[in-house]
Write a structure and sequence with these properties.
Elements lengths: L4 H19 L3 H8 L1 E6 L2 E2 L3 E3 L5 E2 L1 H13 L2 E6 L5 H6 L5 E6 L2 H4 L2 E8 L2 E7 L14 E5 L3 H9 L5 E5 L2 H9 L5 E5 H10 L5 E9 L2 E6 L3 H16 L2 H10 L8
Parallel strand pairs: 1-5, 1-6, 9-10, 9-11
Antiparallel strand pairs: 2-3, 3-4, 6-13, 7-13, 8-11, 8-12
Subcellular location: Cell envelope
Protein name: Transporter substrate-binding domain-containing protein
Pfam families: SBP_bac_3
Length: 260
């Protein structure tokens, strides 16, 4: 047993060295070394990410990933993610950066967040000729909403008693009711609202006012401080030069909120 202890100790020491080396791994340096930044993006989440008519990825997040790669002077590699696998994809180091992540105390225990880069919020949408500036203006109007969603619970608390809230089992039902004129206003996320504007330009639809807000962030693995700081610098730069606002106008059909 005594003869084997040096081997055992050396094995443990080697394992500790490997673990220490892993702990010191720097994702930003790896990105520069590999010449590629792997960005986890949704491909079924328009207008943030989707396949266009030419089957090429397009959207707010796609344009942002390309801007980031240009800033880092590397090539972008778009990695398709889902709501369920995105954080495991990051923590298992299959991607370097995640997009469209809402910040929460639970997630902050697992991953680190850069600045917010895109607005995500619930809003009331209606035609340009419909006078709505606040919840008080919903009095006497018919609203369409998906039953049991955050949109439903939020507008149910805010709408005046004289407002008629038509609830549908699926979001598409609420959208169809609004598009067909069965409701004067629609309560959906800003991303859905922007998509409807593009698909139905004759509606002359516009965002009336904002409800619940939970902006989208870029996220990196826990402890990747250098990469997080570099992302913050990048976002500050494209906010200052107007590039990020241009993405918002292009894809979300509205300028960036002043408090983003």
């Amino acid at each position: 047993m005594i003869a084997k202890r040096p081997f055992l100790l050396s094995t443990v020491a080697a394992a500790l060295c490997v673990a220490s080396g892993m702990a010191r791994a720097d994702a930003l340096q790896d990105i520069a070394k590999n010449g590629v930044v792997r960005v986890g993006v949704f491909m079924d989440y328009p207008p943030f990410g989707a396949l266009g008519p030419d089957l090429k990825a397009q959207g707010y997040d796609i344009d942002l990933a390309n801007l980031l790669a240009k800033e880092l002077k590397v090539k972008p590699e778009l990695v398709q993610i889902t709501g369920d696998n995105r954080i495991p994809m990051l923590t298992s180091k299959k991607v370097d950066v995640l997009v469209s992540v809402g910040k929460s105390p639970e997630r902050e225990k697992v991953i680190d967040f850069a600045q917010a880069y895109a607005p995500y919020y619930l809003a009331v949408f209606a035609g340009k000729g419909t006078a709505i500036k606040s919840s008080a203006d919903l009095a006497g109007k018919t609203l369409a909403v998906a039953r049991g969603t955050l949109e439903d619970t939020t507008i149910s608390k805010e709408a005046p008693a004289s407002a008629t809230i038509r609830r549908f089992d699926e979001p598409n039902g609420a959208i169809s009711a609004f598009v067909s004129g069965q409701a004067q206003a629609l309560v959906v996320g800003n991303d859905v609202g922007a998509t409807i504007m593009v698909k139905h330009p004759k509606l002359s639809m516009e965002q009336k006012y904002q409800l619940f807000s939970s902006p989208s962030h870029l996220a990196v693995n826990k402890g990747e401080t250098a990469l997080k700081n570099r992302l913050d610098e990048f976002l500050a730069k494209i906010k200052a030069d107007g590039s990020l606002n241009a993405l918002s106008v292009k894809w979300l059909k509205a300028p960036l909120p002043k408090d983003l």
